[in-house]
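FAQ
Q: What does a multi-component entry look like?
A: The components come first, one per line:
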Amino acid sequence: MQKNNIALIIGFCLSTLQVTAQDDLLESLNNEQSKKKSLTIASFKGTRLINSPTLEVVGRRALDFRIAHRFGPFNSGYQNFWGIDGPATIKLSFEYSFDGRFMFGIGRSSAQKLYDGFLKYRLLRQTTKNEMPISVTLYASANINGQKQESLPYYHNFTGRMSYAYQIIIGRKFNEHLTLQVSPTIIHYNLVEKSTDKNTTMAVIGAGRLKFTRSMALTFEYGMRLKGMTNDFSSYFNTASLGIDIETGGHIFQMFVTNSTGMNEVQYIPYTNTSWKDGGIRLGFNVSRVFAIGNRKK
Amino acid sequence: MIYKTTLTLLLASSLSLNYLIGQVVKSESASVNFLSKTPLEDIDATSKEVVSVINTEKNQIAFSIPNKSFKFDNSLMEEHFNEKYMESEKFPNSTFSGTINDEIDYKQDTDKKITVTGKLKIHGVEKVVTLPGFIRIANGKLNVQTQFMVKTADYKIDIPTLVFEKIAQEIKVTVSGIYPLK
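Then the predicted structure of the entire assembly, as tokens:
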């Protein structure tokens, strides 16, 4: 009983202390604020890291216009200015989101005259206090090979031109500097060149960034093929890229070296045909420009 | 026994808290808006997730605003505001706590100009400031309003040269809160 009385007094004193000074007035407010969940922001600067989609989606009512460019391979030698002379591939794409969670986009790449449309959805979002420790984003793209019929003798009808990529992007921003993500991927081609080729394959893409100033980051990605599309696994290589991100307000510049020429998942994941080992790497850059579209003043 | 003691402790603290809360009024709605005005661009954002309390006995007032709750028209600006300028994941809240320098009879309907002196904390930097304000008591409600300028350099908010012309060096901040007195 006596113990209870002491506890009563201590409790009273403690709580009195809690609300007397003005700083404690603030303390109680901050405590209240800190109970609210806060979503982790800016895990990556852009919606694509080098080739691969990141867990990020463009902001609400934002249009991202991207220009991607890949030069020729380094091992083409001095005569070809180590690939700067080309042959180059270019991709233009637009991405838009109404709500900052669901995004859709279209693109067109000079490699195989490939047209693509894709959807991206932020299923789970990491929170700063780890109630949700990871972000999960779903990605799906459909691609149409736009080359002339003459150059595609084995394509009989339109659906034969179609290929698809599906990804579950699982990532975590560990701190201000480090973000990592891993994306199990399925690639499907409606029609493949040889009867021994497979229509569907799987891969896992690992990607990350190391932000070293508030506007610059080192970026890297690697795609591990679990099966090849063709019988001979070693006739193609795993995609591997290393780059740098520079963000300047409305623009993001991404510069890197990569062994892949194609810029769509259906191309660079199963069909990268040059390797880092023999200098089959090339310089590339992406430029992203975000426009605010469809904003209304309240 | 320990359980019982803890229970008593909790009961005691909650009882005394309730007793003291009688002097503390909490905002039913409060908002903070800021405006950066330059010849090139006006940028403004508003937060409605502001919480504020006034201790009517001690004439003290406090505000806390989660930086991420500021809504911009341009979502990319919102991200940069949090990621690059306010560093919201390191410094989640902007706060003010201070004392109202004027005598106020909270039981009487009034309109009154006041000044408040206290600590303004933005981007982890705390500064003692005196802010002008306006107070209105009517229909059992207390209404507080203030408008003041904040220099970004004072709070170590670094604006890169590239966007220097688009972001004002002094930001106009407008704060308002409504507190039920009964």
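Q: Is there any commentary attached?
A: Sometimes. For this entry: The helical segments of chain B are 2-21, 75-85.
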